[in-house]
Amino acid sequence: MTMAPEMTLDYFNRLGQDYLPGHLGLRITAVGEGLLCAEVDVQQHLLAPNGFLHAASVVALADTAAGYACAANLPAGARSFTTIELKCNFIGTATEGTVCCEARAVHLGRSSQLWDVTVHAKGQERPIALFRCTQMVLWPKTQP
User: Fold this and answer.
1) Residue 142's pLDDT is what?
2) Helix H or strand E encompassing 106
3) Which residue of 49, 56, 82, 133 pairs with 86 in a disulfide if CB–CB is 3.0 to 4.6 A?
4) Does residue 110 contact residue 88 with C-beta atoms inside 8 Å?
5) How many CB atoms lie within 10 A of CB 21?
């Protein structure tokens, strides 16, 4: 599988600008075959009222990374994708700094893709969350 050449850092950072990823301040920092990295600065609007990083903020970061990675690694001729399952285990948190993630392909098939995303505070090895996402590859409809 070869990544589409137009799927660059600039492309993905512009893509989400007017949508949830842009609203949350997510940045794509690396993209390649079977890989995508992203990060977000911890700000008050990403926290829960208890002062810890909101679970939905972590999921938004990880799901965006997995989705963009899937888009960058679709099989030739595929139209798009949709998420059919996701799971997240939370094992830590952050209250300041930058939170990073790395999405890695587990399976890049013709009809589905499976991505694992590790989320951690920048500069820390211990994960904040482990996320797994299954994507269904969408193909153009054929004419009868």
Assistant:
1) 80
2) strand 98-108
3) 133
4) no
5) 24
Amino acid in the structure at residue 120:
H
Q: Enter the pTM of the model.
A: 0.94
3-state secondary structure of 69: helix
Q: How far is CA 82 from CA 70, 73, 78, 121, in A?
A: 9, 13, 12, 28
pLDDT in tens, 36-78: 999 999 999 999 999 999 999 999 999 999 999 999 999 999 9
**Which residue's entry shows tokens 């963009």?**
68
∠104-26-134 over CA atoms, to 5°? 35
Closest CA to 61 of 137, 126, 128, 138: 128
What tokens were used for 78? 């595929």
Residue 73: partners with Cβ closer than 8 Å, 6 or more residues away: 1, 3, 33, 34, 105, 108, 113
